[in-house]
Amino acid sequence: MHLGIGNFIQTYSLSQKTLLADDTVDFGFSDDITINEPEGLCETNPGEFIAIVNVKKADGGRYVQFYRTRVPYLFTVSTSAAEHGSVSEGGEFSRGEEKTVSYTADEGFRLAKLSVDGLYLPVTEYPDSYTFSDVQADHTLAVTFEPIPTATPTPTATATPTETPAITQTPEPAISKVPASSTVSFSSVASHFAAFWKSTVHAASWFRHLASAGASLFARIRKADPVFLAMPFVLLVLILLFVLRLRYVRRIRRERSRKALEHRRRTYEELVREFTEDPKDEEVSIDELLLTIDELQKEEQKNT
User: Fold this and answer.
1) How many CA atoms lie less than 13 Å away from 47 in the CB half-sphere?
2) What is the pLDDT of residue 50?
3) What residues are paired with 62 via a beta bridge?
4) Which among 101, 123, 99 has a CA at the least distance from the CA of 111?
5) Torsion 210-211-215-218 (CA) sign
6) pLDDT for 197
7) Can you tell me the distance from the alpha carbon of 35 to that of 2, in angstroms, rounded to the nearest whole number?
8) Residue (of 75, 80, 21) closest to 46 by Cα position
9) What distance in Å separates the CA atoms of residue 163 and residue 230, rounded to the nearest whole number?
10) Which of 4, 172, 226, 234 yields a CA-CA distance of 20 to 30 A from 130?
């Protein structure tokens, strides 16, 4: 975006195999943002999009900021009427607009049925008009008129209840084409979303990959045969045996070291005893004793 080129969103339709819109984009970046790089676009609600943008500010900080916009889709309101009456025309309307459709029966006729998006509504609640408020999709409206019954002197017969028409589902409406001159403006939603350091975003991405890999491994283990499922337990037993062997070897080594130290202690005691029992050649005996002790200490350090 900071290069000043490619500031638009092209919207294609896979079903219609055509370009629906070529809208310019305006994020309205603040003056302290020196570099910006949009990374992704997510539709959170019909027509509402969140853009994830990496930005670098003048103070050198790098952040991830979120911007929200609503794409101005055009929706069609279609109307149809049977004989003996009229209905106002529909047309194309932008998202969120309001459209009131009025209908009038000819003289001697009255409204018999009112169908909105395939659902029949009570005609007593909407005798002459129906309003589509906050248009968010394509809509259809159909009306049927019937003659007004005239009074006769014959006894009043019990009216046969009419069967309630079945509810029909309206197929998914097609996306209407937006004029190429429209502009999609993104507004910052920093008050609704926290700004994260880029490194934190990367850490979250790695965590998602790790979770996905764990879920995939768990799914494969569930589909595996019993022999494959037994392999982790066998591996666990081998690890436990290895740990026990290490503990046993360490205990043997400690026992050997203890015996060696005990042997050296007895050797020290014997040297001292010999020195105290034979006071002759005292200087030579002391030198020999010190030399022997020094050699034993070096040997002990080497073994340790």
Assistant:
1) 16
2) 92
3) 56
4) 123
5) positive
6) 46
7) 6
8) 75
9) 63
10) 172
Strand partners, 120: 115
Position of tokens 């666990």? 236
Please give the Cα distance from 18 to 49 (Å, whole number).
21
Across the strands, what pairs with 78? 140
Q: CA-CA distance, 87 to 128, in Å (whole number)? A: 9
In terms of DSSP bridges, do strands 139-147 and 74-81 run parallel, antiparallel, or are they unpaired? parallel
Question: What is the predicted pLDDT for the residue at 137?
Answer: 87
Instruction: Give ∠ CA 40-41-42 in degrees, rounded to 5.
Output: 125
Task: Provide the pLDDT for residue 35.
Answer: 87
Q: What residue has token string 């019954």?
A: 149
Q: Mean pLDDT for each consecutive 10-residue tract of the chain (304 residues)?
A: 73 88 83 88 86 91 91 84 85 87 91 92 92 91 90 63 57 54 70 49 63 72 64 86 89 86 79 63 57 74 74
Nearest residue to 78 (alpha-carbon basis) of 170, 172, 141, 144:
141
2-33: b (≥16 Cβ within 10 Å) or e: eeeeeeebeeeeeeeeeebbebebebebeeeb
User: How far, rounded to the nearest angstrom, does the alpha carbon of residue 111 sit from its chain's CA centroid?
Assistant: 50
- Residues sharing a CB contact under 8 Å with residue 262, sequence separation 6 or more, in sequence order: none
Tokens at residue 17, please?
A: 């195999």
C-alpha 44/C-alpha 67 separation (Å) is 12
Cα separation, 75 vs 176, in Å, equals 6
Instruction: List the one residue out of 95, 113, 217, 196 whose CA is nearest residue 162.
Output: 113
Which one, of 134, 132, 118, 133, lies nearest residue 45 by Cα?
A: 134
Q: Which of 48, 26, 52, 58 has the alpha carbon at shortest distance from 40?
A: 52
Query: 86: Cβ–Cβ under 8 A, 6 or more apart, which residues?
Result: 103, 104, 106
